[in-house]
Amino acid sequence: MAAAGDVPVRVCNQEIVKFDLEIKATVQDISDCQGPLSVLTELNARVKEKFQHLRLRIQELEQMAKERDKESEKQALLQEVENHKKQMLSNQTAWRKANLACKIAIDNSEKNELLPGGDPLRQRKTTKESLAENASTITENLMGISRMMSQQVKQSEETMQTLANSSRTILDANDEFKSMSGTIQLGRKLITKYNRRELTDKLLIFLALALFLATVLYILKKRLFPFL
C-alpha cells in the first residue's frame, strides 16, 4: 500500500475514532443527566450532530475501500468499515438506554419537587403535563435513534453484500487460475512428449543414414575390389 494512499485513510480513521469517543462521552452525560428537559434536548442534539459526522466519515472510508485496486487492500478496509458500523450501532443502543435512564431521573426529580401542601388536582395536572411533555420528547428522540439504527443496519447489509461479491470474484479468479494451471501443465507434457519424439526421429534418421552409407560402401567395395 502506497504511503500517499495511506494518508487519507489514516486521517479518516482518526476522525472516526475522535467522533466515537465524543459520542461515548456525551452519551454518558445523558445517562448522568438529572434534568431539566432543556439540558437533555441540548445533549441529544449534540449527539445527533456527532453521529452525522461519524456516518459521513465511515461512508468516506467505505468509498476509499471500493476504489482500491488491490483486492486484499479493499477487503481489509471494508472489514474496518464493518467494524466501525458495528461500533456505531452499539453507541446508538447506549444512547437509547441513556435517554430512558434520563427520562426516569427527570420524572422522579419533578415528582420530588411537588409541594406536599399544594392543590392535589393542580399537582396531578402539572405532573401529567410534565410527564406528557417529557414522554413526547423522549419518544421523538428514541424514534430518531431507531431511524439512525435502521439506516446503519441497511448500510451494514450493503457492505456485507460488497464483501460477498468480492469473495465470489476472488473464488472465480482462483478457479480460472487453476484451469489455466492445468492447461499449462498439459502443454508442458505435450512439449516434453514432442521433444522425445523429435529425438527418436533424429536417432532413426541417423541409423538409416548409417545403414545406407554402409550399404553403399559395401557395394563399392565389391565392384572396385572384388578380390578383397
Structure commentary:
- With 228 residues, this protein is mainly α.
- The protein is 91% helix and 0% strand.
- It has helices at 3-32, 37-66, 71-113, 120-224.
- Helix 2 (37-66) runs parallel beside helix 4.
Based on CA atoms alone, the radius of gyration comes out at 41 Å
Q: What separation lies between the terminal Cα atoms? A: 87 Å
How many strands appear in the DSSP assignment?
Answer: 0
Percent helix among the residues?
A: over 70%
Largest sheet: none
Q: What's the pLDDT, averaged over the residues?
A: 79
Number of helical segments with 4 or more residues: 4
Strand coverage percent: under 5%
Order of helices and strands: HHHH
Low-confidence stretches: none
Structural class designation: mainly alpha
How does the overall form come out from the CA principal axes?
rod-shaped
Q: Which features characterize this protein?
A:
228 residues; 4 helices; mainly alpha
Element layout with pairings:
Elements: H1 3-32, H2 37-66, H3 71-113, H4 120-224
Helix pairs in contact: 1-2, 1-3, 2-3, 2-4, 3-4
Describe what is shown at a glance.
The protein has helices spanning 3-32, 37-66, 71-113, 120-224. The chain has 228 residues and is mainly alpha-helical.
